From TrEMBL:
PROSITE patterns: TPR (PS50005)
Name of protein: Tetratricopeptide repeat protein
Keyword Heme part of the UniProt annotation: no
Coiled-coil residue spans: none
Record keywords: Membrane, TPR repeat, Transmembrane, Transmembrane helix
TM helices/strands, residue ranges: 7-29, 35-55
Taxonomic superkingdom: Bacteria
UniProt-listed InterPro entries: TPR-like_helical_dom_sf, TPR_rpt
TPR repeat ranges per the UniProt record: 113-146
Amino acid sequence: MRDRITYCVLAAVLVVYFVLVGGRGVALIGQGTPVTVGLGLSVLVMPLIGVWFLWRTTQFARDANRLAAELEAEGGLPVDELVRHPSGRVDRDSADAVFTRRKAEAEDAPGDWRVWFRLAVAYRDAGDTPRARKAMQRAIALHDGKPVRA
């Protein structure tokens, strides 16, 4: 729940920022000189990219949460079996062992979104966020019946 609140607050701050920057871009365009119009258009590009990125990230989080809820209802969420240091950090060897097992499951059942979801969690626990995101995207695509790249 805390993560959701943090995400919503940061998203709201970004939206305010996009509005302020967009206003500056419109003001520059309103000056009417070729230089200010060019600058105004380039300033407007940044909030547009930011809004697109925020939308895609929100959509990804919503889809991942939807899969997590479905997997939880089935009783298939991965159990936290990681060894942690006294500081709370995950032991690297423990994360690697769980990752190796999850990767083998995904190789055995490449069309099952559940194993890809669990692999994404293992990637995240191992500290590999880019691969965790790709595995989760694959789980979402498989769940929704969308084509998946090999």
